[in-house]
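Field: sequence (string)
Field: structure_tokens (string)

Example rows 1 and 2, in order.
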Amino acid sequence: MAAIEVLVSTTEPGPDPRRTPRRQGDFVRELRRNISAYGFLIGALLCFGLFSWYPMVREFIMSFQKQKLGRTRWVGMHNFNQVWNDPSFGQAWRNTLYFTLLALLLGYAVPFFVAVVLNEFRHARAYLRVVVYLPVMLPPVASLVLFQYFYNPEYGLFDHILHAVGLPTLQWLQSANTSMIAVVIASTWMNMGGATLIYLAALQGIPGELYEAAEIDGAGILRRVWHVTIPQTRLILSMLLMLQIVATMQVFVEPFVLTNGGQGVDNSTTTIVYLVYQYAFNFSNYGAASALGLLLLLVLVAFALVYRWISRRAEQ
């Protein structure tokens, strides 16, 4: 027994096959076998880093710099103080939040309503999808020029409708009271198709047995929407809510084309991103523009974190 114990104690454990290092030849063969996949992966990472992450890093650096006559110098928090003390800063935030609120009321509810109506159709559903999605296929500037024609107080379509129902003419884009509403209507029409199709896809994923059971219980369309549709599409609704808030707080093209940022009507449609454009391209102050863009990014990140925290609490 003593000899066996000595033999066991002096015998070294064998190599663990799970920890056997790969030979160099195996690594080269695996690399050659997956060379195409690695090539596509590296290309995608380079494009993502070059066009997504590099501008963000560059913006962060420029927000602490001042460019003048081709020379760059470090100015610390000067750019942030400058945009913070700008009288247009507060108004731009108010206009942005006002646009976001109106866009959610229209752009969030109307596509859902249209999707529910389309889902009830038994015939010509594919044709109606194309009709609803057509505005998304138009170039945004072309769509906005079309709405400029609609908003014309002399021969525009909307004023013809107001005259037909006995209402007075409105200065849609020339009044501080209606210019933002006009921008929101145009934006909703332009972007409604994409959201409607997402809602419609979510609606068609709901089991038909739930609607049949609701109909047997005597539920009308409103009760079916409230008790079946909304609970079954809750995740899609919450996801689109976050995406629409992020997108609407970065609105630029609509106020730029329709009202030039509200120039001449008390800057009533000057948004944060339009103010960034003014700093960068009207005043050539790229440092202040970067600082303002960075502030907007921080607000959106804070909103996303709060939204994520609320969602986790709701799931638990």
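Row 2 begins here:
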Amino acid sequence: MNMIISALAQGLIWSLLALGLYVSFRVLNIADMSTEGTFTLGGAVGVQCITLGLNPFVSVLVAIVAGAIAGGVTGFLITKLNIPSLLAGILTMTGLYSVNLRVMGKANINLLGMETIYSGIKKWNLPRNMDTILVGAIVVGVIIFIYTLFFKTEFGQALIATGDNQEMARSLGISTNIMKTIGLMMSNGIIALAGAVIAQNNGYADIQMGIGAIVIGLASIIIGEVLFSHTSFVIRVGSLAIGSILYRIIMVLVLEAGLNPNDFKLISAILLAIFLALPKIKELFYVRQYRKKLSKQTRVATKKIPDEGVK
């Protein structure tokens, strides 16, 4: 039971990563590889600001701004220098490795004995992991609420139109380059928020903390979409949190089954591949069922023809 509660807590705060990635991956239709660098940047800036004496909540805001700037760099590479989005993301991610080392001054910094955004709730002496669940639920709820309002606005609709069909968006007078840049800034700002919240929860920031983050984010998105396909926008966005929680529970169960923790990344990749393949498997299943039904109807019709001839 404790492991399930722990998975719920971790799933909630990690769903922030999926919410950020959703904007670039699903709304703008861009595979943004800078995610792993931005996630670490959020953690590095958030933790370093606290060690310098800044308020933990303010440090989270600074991390969001830093992530948004990194997203703006990726947008600049794509829209102004015409670098393919995949390569632009990789370039930003590579550059951010050095930036993150500069921010932290070393490969790892901790928050031992320092105030974090969880400190106030911890004083309530709630059961273990409840502070993480409360903070995660509040932050995720706020982001979903902002998304719901934002994507109903004219600007939000223009962002969606840019990702759906650039040519059509341009014909409607939408500046797709500006939309892409702002969308990437928004996406990476929230990813950095995830990094800052998770780093404060862990009690440290590490230069390697972003490795594999994009796989976790994508897995959460895909699991949520597989379970809640063809629904309203609010439920679709909310399903990212559910997908993230389920992903954590699946990983806990897999590791409980006795597999080597060193295989965690490999298991994550295999799970993601399985969930990515699920829509195709469902399609093949329905096609097979339809063919069976069609074949059965054809056999019945063929049997009826001789009977009608005898009459």
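free_text_note (row 2): The first helix runs from residue 2 to 27.
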